[in-house]
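Note to self: the last two entries modelled the partners one at a time, which told us nothing about the interface. This time every component goes in together.
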Amino acid sequence: ILSNVQCLLNQQDQLDGEVGVGVYQTCSVIRYWSIDSVQPNTPKSSRGQRGETPVDRPLPSGIEPGLAEMIKRDIIQEDLKISWDDIAELGTAKKLLKEAVILPMILPEFFTGLRKPWGGVLLFGPPGTGKTMLAKAVASQGKTTFFNCNASTLVSKWHGESERLVKCLFQMARHYAPSTIFFDEIDALMMSRGSGTEHEASRRMKSELLSQIDGISSGSGDTTNGTVMVLATTNKPWEIDEAMRRRLEKRIYIPLPDLTARKAMFGLFLKTVEIDEEVTLDYLAARTEGFSGADIMSVCRDASMMPLRRAIADKSPDEIVELKEQGALQFTLGVGDFNEAFKSVQSSVSTKELERYQSWMDEFGSS
Ligand code: ADP
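The predicted structure of the combined assembly is written out below.
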């Protein structure tokens, strides 16, 4: 099917007016939905015939070799394996990301003019809600070279030289395009400018970053292989510099999970353990109002350890091995184990903070 689609796409110019557009759009949709059917272990489309990845391509001249090596080693991330199905719910965010990030990468010819891709996409919301997982799922699609820039590492490791690093980063992203440049915790990098304590070097780095993003959204530079996209996450959207906020045009709110999402998460996280039938997913979801995905993961981890802790209390290592050999360390988790876990894990986001996210969403978010 895909090769037929490709063939039709290539013939698009020879088809008349609306028929041509219709064929083109149908094909685009087929190609779009086929992304989901690509298994993580299928060869990457971006790999060459001998299986080399884009980063095996030689560097162009004008890139500082030392910085380029560091970026290849520490920032470019390959073989991430997070699928959309590993992420519970968040259907709207997944759809928006496919449309805003993945689709323009595979159909650059379609995303021109009015359909020009978003310059940058921001995922914001309380901590532990799956923002980083979503970004990694984008990377795992294997369609783009993924530059994983943890803002705090960038600043601390490259203090004073971050401006050069940012320039080199974007040069490489254009060279290895299609690329996604991902800034985790962008608030740490782009705090509001102009505060008295701000260092000159940090100010220059921010200006460089802004002008590089302008460069990619205006389509200038040597992007010969496709699009470069900026994707960022933050738990503190209100701390982002206004100039950066404007460039992150698509702002997607990732809220705390609702009842349905919490139920789905428990289902996902407890897949590999045995649970007593008295413990229902409905019960667990109802008990965790206000919890983030990360909080729910902590509850599951903690609960899953409870029977083991009880069984090995006061036992010596030899006795524990003996218990294992007798098969006495296989457990079914009961409601008491979860209730015990609830005592030590609490919701990590306050109502006041939630109101702050909602009002930022109302003012600056994309629906
Ligand atoms: P964030 O970037 O929003 O702070 P992460 O994406 O790093 O959060 O998620 C932290 C952890 O919480 C994940 O490793 C995962 O265990 C769990 N988690 C959060 N949201 C989800 C979700 N929607 N589906 C599955 N796991 C989730």
